Amino acid sequence: LAMYERVVEAKTHDYEKCAFKLGEIYREGQYVEQDLEKAAKYYQIAIDCIDQNPDEATIEAAKEALESLSK
Predict the structure, then answer these.
(1) φ and ψ at residue 70, rounded to 5 degrees
(2) Is 52 strand, coil or helix?
(3) Cβ(22)–Cβ(49) under 8 Å?
(4) Which of 2, 40, 42, 61 is the 20 to 30 A CA-CA neighbour of 33?
């Protein structure tokens, strides 16, 4: 968990994938208490990085996950 957070904070290679994974972890409550606000935060980070590192599959998955949280 800490490794993913460090990658996202440093915005290193593939950080959108780490942000998406953190969103999944917090949404599902894996290893941590479920926190939908944190999940949404990390999904949004993954979406926002489209200009820097466009991994379209990860970004689309993050958009879908973020949308499902708002239902």
Answers:
(1) -90, 5
(2) coil
(3) no
(4) 61
Both tokens of 45, joined, read 């980070």
Q: What is the distance between the alpha carbons of residues 15 and 67, in angstroms, rounded to a whole number? A: 21
Whether 21 contacts 4, CB under 8 Å: yes
Per-residue pLDDT reduced to its tens digit, 55-67: 788 888 899 999 9
CA distance 67 to 14: 22
Q: Which residue has the tokens 């958009």?
A: 63
Could you say which DSSP state residue 33 is in? -
* Cβ neighbours around 48 below 10 Å, total: 13
Check the CA dihedral 28-31-36-41 and report its sign. negative
pTM of the model: 0.81
- Coil, strand or helix: which one is 12? coil
